[in-house]
Amino acid sequence: MGRYLWQVSYSNDAWGAQISNPQNRLEAVGAMLEPVGIKLIEGYATLGEFDIVAIVEAPDDKTIAAASIAISSTGSVSALKTSPLMPVEDLVDALSIAKKITYKPPSS
Question: Does residue 103 fall inside a structural domain?
Fold first, then answer.
């Protein structure tokens, strides 16, 4: 299971629908994702470029891609960015591996 960061911007129509019927969409989306093995770990409303951020756990990249496509295809979001998350310990391991790689740029 991998963890992913979702950054979501709602469409204008979705905002209008939520004003008419206020609800916690994270709960609804979490329930919709469970049948395909995706678990909503936590989510937040944000004040900035994106309206919602969520950390989700999915069985694999294909499953999270399918969920992103399904959500985006409804037109209810104007942007949905998916970023795989990596534990910091894995980054430290990657740095140790990178130390062993000698890369020569094309200009050298």
Answer: no
Q: Is the dihedral of CA 5, 30, 89, 94 positive or negative?
A: negative
Residues near 41 by Cβ (< 8 Å), separated by ≥ 6? 3, 54, 55, 56, 57
In tens digits, what is the pLDDT along the chain, a chain of 108 residues?
999 999 999 999 999 999 999 999 999 999 999 999 999 999 999 999 999 999 999 999 999 999 999 999 999 999 999 999 999 999 999 999 999 999 989 987
- Parent domain of 31: 2-98
Q: Is 69 exposed, middle or buried (0-12, 13-18, 19+ CB in 10 A)?
A: exposed
